[in-house]
Design a protein that fits this description.
about 45% helix, mainly alpha, two-stranded antiparallel ribbon
Length: about 200
């Protein structure tokens, strides 16, 4: 069975967890009286069970595509809806986050909208500093240290939603030595690098 031009199992979408054997072929004989327990009825119920199991799974799989948080092969359709080319080299989690960020960008552009979009990419608090006289604004990442991932995608999205006459830049927050020096080697060794560079923010 195919949806559009893509078939199940022909791409990375075949990597998603599938149904269990019990879900795919339920035991319909367990719902029938004992006198149906003979060869002809068993064969008929086995064939029906396979079709019913696949139908149930297909319905659930299709319904998952209507929601960004559960979509897999349907992310291509979300990309088409948002006017972007699918990037199938990225994993589902990253594609979902980018899709949700783009959905947040629909409507009239405001400072709050840009903050929400940037926060979705960085995973932390973001402030937008406006300089109207200079026709520019600065997106400052205050809830996470360093350069967030997927900056190229964020830049493309901000370019899409911002007013055309404005330019923008980024401001990042980094861990300085005075902050790191307050931690002993024993305390620091228990942290990952991501935790260590965010110690002041996370507390």
């Amino acid at each position: 069975m195919e949806y559009g031009s893509r078939g199940y199992g022909e791409s990375i979408y075949g990597q998603v967890d599938g149904p269990t054997p019990e879900e795919l072929t339920p035991n319909l004989m367990s719902y029938l009286p004992f006198y149906y327990d003979e060869r002809t009825m068993q064969s008929a119920q086995s064939a029906l069970a396979t079709e019913m199991g696949r139908l149930k799974w297909d319905i659930r799989n299709i319904m998952d595509q209507f929601f960004v948080d559960t979509a897999t092969w349907g992310l291509d359709d979300w990309d088409q809806f948002l006017g972007r080319d699918p990037d199938r080299l990225k994993n589902y989690l990253n594609r979902r986050e980018e899709t949700k960020a783009r959905l947040r960008g629909f409507g009239t552009t405001t400072v709050e909208m840009i903050q929400r979009v940037a926060a979705a990419f960085s995973g932390g608090e973001v402030t937008v500093l406006e300089y109207p006289a200079e026709f520019r604004f600065v997106v400052k990442f205050v809830g996470t240290r360093g350069v967030p991932p997927n900056m190229a995608e964020l830049t493309n999205l901000i370019e899409m939603i911002k007013p055309a006459h404005l330019v923008f830049s980024y401001a990042y927050t980094f861990l300085v030595w005075q902050e790191a020096a307050a931690y002993t080697w024993t305390n620091a060794s228990r942290m990952s690098w991501n935790e260590y560079r965010n110690i002041e923010i996370r507390g």
